[in-house]
Amino acid sequence: MATTYDCSDPDARVEGLAAAARTVRAGRLVVLPTDTVYGIGCDAFSSAAVRSLLAAKRRGPDMPVPVLLGSWSTIDGLVLGVPKTARDLIEAFWPGGLSIVLPHAPSLDWDLGSTKGTVMLRMPLHPVALELLRDVGPMAVSSANVSGSPPAASADEAQTQLGDSVAVYLDGGPSGEPIASTVVDLTGDDPRVLREGAVSTAAVAEVLGREVITV
């Protein structure tokens, strides 16, 4: 049976974050608010939990699950190297609506789907999400919806779609306009915008001081 916690109430927020942390550490699923849309998340290093996340969304491993971080420094332990382009974008847009794709560290024991040796990373600009991430560490997080349906802009919308496949729902209020993050691929010689969302391609190009390829 799923439990929803109203994070606008200070006591419920403390209780909810504690319950969510226990749930993540137990390899189960939570729904959390972010600065873009609501997300469904789990321990990034639990292959079984990631499989449960994909099953809840009715999605296959061909669409890998992104990873959310609670701090800038966390990225250093997750990727093969952090190029200057990534540092510049992190300083400009994290926390915020920009996701970065980099080669992941080969030593990591995780299975996020068919990533081809890469990982998509983001630090969300939402206090509830950040507090949970700083407690439990990196989380695999995808939009809180069944594949093919609109992303959830509220905890209620997420629960309508995902039901009891999620153990804990953290209700942070409406997310506002449900705009996905912008995705920038830094795995090649030239930065590529794979998806334009909350951050414009022009803003990315301005920070990098160069043109970027759009796909």
Features:
alpha/beta, 215 residues, ATP-binding, single chain, L-threonylcarbamoyladenylate synthase
What is the topology?
Layout: E1 3-6, H1 10-25, E2 30-32, E3 39-43, H2 47-57, E4 67-68, H3 84-93, E5 98-103, E6 118-122, H4 127-136, E7 139-143, H5 155-162, E8 168-171, E9 182-185, E10 192-195, H6 201-208, E11 213-214
Parallel strand pairs: 1-8, 2-8, 4-6, 5-9, 10-11
Antiparallel strand pairs: 2-3, 3-7, 4-7, 5-6, 9-10
In a few lines, what is going on in this structure?
The protein has one domain: DHBP synthase (Alpha-Beta Complex).
Plain-language structure description:
This protein has 215 residues and is an alpha/beta fold. It has one domain (3-214): DHBP synthase (Alpha-Beta Complex), CATH 3.90.870.10. The chain is built from 6 helices and 11 strands. The chain has helices spanning 10-25, 47-57, 84-93, 127-136, 155-162, 201-208, and strands at residues 3-6, 30-32, 39-43, 67-68, 98-103, 118-122, 139-143, 168-171, 182-185, 192-195, 213-214. Strands 1-8-2-3-7-4-6-5-9-10-11 form an 11-stranded mixed β-sheet, with helices on both faces. A hairpin with a 6-residue loop joins strand 9 and strand 10 (192-195). The relative contact order is 0.23. Belongs to the SUA5 family. This is L-threonylcarbamoyladenylate synthase. Its EC number is 2.7.7.87.
